[in-house]
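Limitations

Structures in this collection are predictions, not experimental determinations, and the ligand pose is part of the prediction. Treat each record accordingly. The example that follows, with adenosine-5'-triphosphate as the small molecule, is included so readers can see exactly what is and is not provided: the inputs are given verbatim, and the output is the predicted complex.
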Amino acid sequence: MRDLRRWLLSLSGLAAFVAVWALAVALSSTHVVPSPWRVARGLAELAVTGALFKHTIASLFRVTWGYLLGVLLGVPAGLLLGWSGRAARTFDPFIQLFRPISPLAWIPIAILWFGVGDPPAVFIIFLGSFFPITVASMNAVANVNATHINVARNFGLSSYQLVRRVLLPAVTPDLVVGMRLTLGIAWLVVVAAEMIAVNSGLGFLIIDSRNAGNRYDLVIAGMVMVGLVGLGLDVVMRRVERFDGLRWSYGAANTADAAEGARP
Amino acid sequence: MSAGAPKPLGRAKVKLAVHGVSMAYPAHDKPIQVLDKIDLDVREGEFVCIVGPSGCGKSTLLNIIGGFVQGTAGEVRIDGEAVTGPDRRRIFVFQERGVLPWLTVAENIGFGLYDLPPAERRARVANYVNLVGLRGFEDAYPQELSGGMKQRVEVARALAVDPDVLYLDEPFGALDSITRLTMRSELLRIWAAEKKTILFVTHDIEESVQLADRVAVMSARPGRIQKIVDVDLPHPRDLSDPRYLAIRDSIFEEIGIAHRV
Ligand SMILES: Nc1ncnc2c1ncn2[C@@H]1O[C@H](COP(=O)(O)OP(=O)(O)OP(=O)(O)O)[C@@H](O)[C@H]1O
Ligand SMILES: [Mg+2]
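Predicted complex:
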């Protein structure tokens, strides 16, 4: 019941937005913004021709690979850097210097190194994922309670056991949150990357709809799709955060979330 | 021998010897001297309390003795061997802060028993779950427990590996007065039954006189051992016994606070 009301509340916000949009377009009879109906028709048109599906899959494919590569390299790198003070001091300047460079600034280099097609796009998403997840992993280690490490030392755990039984469980909640935020970044980056280096994907769909005949209804339809998929990815990752093995962390790590989840 | 009679500790061998331990923490201008040449011998099976004003370096001293922190001078020997790091034969109880939140009560208590066969481990865990009165909470996560229950988990986890020495840093600090009394007598019972050597930090003078064979009184920073007071009263101690009161008041006096409000 409560759930239903919360849903209705969220939906009514969206409905109000669409209504204002429709009204504004109708009253001003503007041509710079298509009406919601035209966007909806555009979405339907793209769905029927299969273009929507094709481009969404293309984007998801690139994000999957770039993101996975970023996580597979970034998580161990971040854990190592977080664990070893010396490694952190050596590599931290490097990371701090590269982190503020937008992955999109790499597009020319990516094309130079990888040509056209998927590889440069995947590379750019990799860069967009690697730095945030590395930093998140470093911070996760830095946040490990020193007392817990002392407990492990006191009970005579070997280094391997210490990592497996204390360090990894301790960082997992922070890591999962970091992975969710990083996936959001990867999704932001893919759309931008696809406007330049490739000829498929939602980013390409958006830019191509403008270039081939100023179909702004399709531009916005593409944007809506980007939003929907991004939302879907976030929902999936939040599910992972609520995964039963992480139940212990709700109290400590994200009290606000837990309180919300606990509401009937 | 019954737990009631005072033990002939004079004849027991020295278990733990602290020799000239000093500690200075680096600071902006000059290092802060926290401990100044601490000497302390603890005999096997002895229960020693360390009391002193807040910030005098009790926790620092216990951490050095436990091998977690390196002092700037001096050494700690256990059974004649210099301490270079923590060891499973000597367990530190970190109030409740050492309970691992991702493990259940049973998993926490079994944390140090990794080299036992599973059946034996289960039996040992069940035994200590009972001992600290946590039956029915085996599968609960620490976040579902009260502060006092978490402290009991830590104590049980420490006892489960059957250490020779226990270091306790204000283990009952966060407890309400009723649970604290229960835990005190529980600790005394375990100490008498299992013959552990116990080093117990507290800033509660009453508590120290109720528990210890000897009370080491520390001065304010830089911490020195100002006096060591023998408490040769049998357990259970009568808290209105004039001898008990005299010892307690002598410690209050030593620290320089009149025992009147
Ligand atoms: N890691 C540290 N770095 C710098 N100074 C520290 C550090 N740890 C403790 N100190 C200082 O050393 C002094 C002694 O601290 P300690 O925690 O040993 O006192 P304590 O006697 O246990 O106090 P309390 O009864 O309040 O627990 C304090 O003044 C504190 O500021
Ligand atoms: Mg302290």
